[in-house]
Amino acid sequence: MAWVSTAELAAAVSEAGGLGIIGSGQAPPDWVREQVRLARKLTSKPFGVNVMLRSPFVDEVMQVLLEERVPVITTGAGNPGKYLPDLKKAGIRVIPVVASVALARRLARSGVDALIAEGMESGGHVGELCTLPLVPQVVDAVDIPVIAAGGIYDGRGLAAALMLGAQGVQMGTRFMCAAECTIHPAVKEMVIKARDRDTVVTGRPTGHPVRVLRNKLSRQFEELESRCAPPEEMEKLGVGKLRAAMVEGDVVYGSVMAGQVSAMVKEIQPAREIVMDVVRGAAELLSSASRWVVTGK
């Protein structure tokens, strides 16, 4: 959600009763500090920041978050172990994203507070397992709370995640079309127009595959993969492409990272409306679940 989940969206989600997360991506520390302070002006509710551990600014960003006493940090693309002692000492909750049981076990042993088990249905960087088999395996493997992510759009996804043993869900793609999301309108329009097979995973040879909406850039990646181009060539092609899409509106040659639920997004809605739709939908489903109980000997 880099360049997508800014302070405006994070604050709106928190105000609606969720936990809004600012996506720091590869942004410099000054930008992250500005976003944290803006979020505090927009909401008095808790919010968090996602830190991509492959960012060239990761050390500086972590220091900013310690200084600003952000209550929750989620992490991706690595192991936050080296930062845990300082974060825990500051009372900051640390919740890494995992895509495998092995990593989940390792991080749980390191002392993180919870885990986000993210299936490959999600947008952006993905693993190899789908949400439905991944979540219960992670739940069974650790003794800390697990949050489900990937392919979750409405109350049906939340209800399913809870039945799999998760304590909550993380959602991204639907919030791209929240009214408070500051991404370029062309990206929102592309998400709304997306069909069920309009996402594709590119960049597997680099070791950091991403799910995006199909466009000319994704086809360029596919061409490079088909001729076994060096990973360095693919990484070079991707430089700056996420910002090009989300900020500048280049949905042709930009990287439009979005999940498979793009096909389910049909309109732009306020964040509060999205949150309430998900929660109410799940509550209705769960309250009627007893009709599926099998009785008898």
Structure overview:
The chain is α/β, with parallel strands linked by helices. It has 2 domains: 194 residues, Alpha-Beta Barrel (TIM Barrel); 64 residues, no CATH class. Helix content is 41%, strand content 14%. The chain has 12 helices and 10 strands. The strands form 2 sheets. The protein has a 7-stranded parallel beta sheet with strand order 1-2-3-4-5-7-8. A 3-stranded antiparallel beta sheet has the order 6-10-9, covered by helices on one side. Strand 9 and strand 10 form a beta hairpin. Helix 1 runs parallel beside helix 2, helix 2 runs parallel beside helix 3 and helix 7 packs across helix 12. It starts with 6 loop residues before the first helix and ends in a 10-residue tail after the last helix. The model has no long low-confidence stretch (mean pLDDT 93).
Blueprint (SSEs and pairs):
Elements: H1 7-15, E1 20-23, H2 29-42, E2 47-52, H3 58-68, E3 72-76, H4 84-89, E4 93-98, H5 101-110, E5 115-118, E6 124-125, H6 131-141, E7 146-149, H7 155-163, E8 168-170, H8 185-193, E9 199-202, E10 210-213, H9 216-226, H10 231-238, H11 241-246, H12 271-287
Parallel strand pairs: 1-2, 2-3, 3-4, 4-5, 5-7, 7-8
Antiparallel strand pairs: 6-10, 9-10
Helix pairs in contact: 1-2, 2-3, 7-12
Unreliable stretches covering 5 or more consecutive residues: none
Structural class: alpha/beta
Main-sheet strand order equals 1-2-3-4-5-7-8
In terms of DSSP E residues, the strand content is 5-15%
Q: Mean of the pLDDT scores? A: 93
The profile of the biggest β sheet is: 7 strands, parallel
Helix count equals: 12
- The strand count comes to 10
Distance between the termini: 50 Å
The CATH superfamily of the largest domain bears the name Aldolase class I
Helix content: 40-55%
Keywords: Flavoprotein, FMN, Oxidoreductase
Protein name: Probable nitronate monooxygenase
Pfam families: NMO (PF03060)
Organism: Desulfofundulus australicus DSM 11792
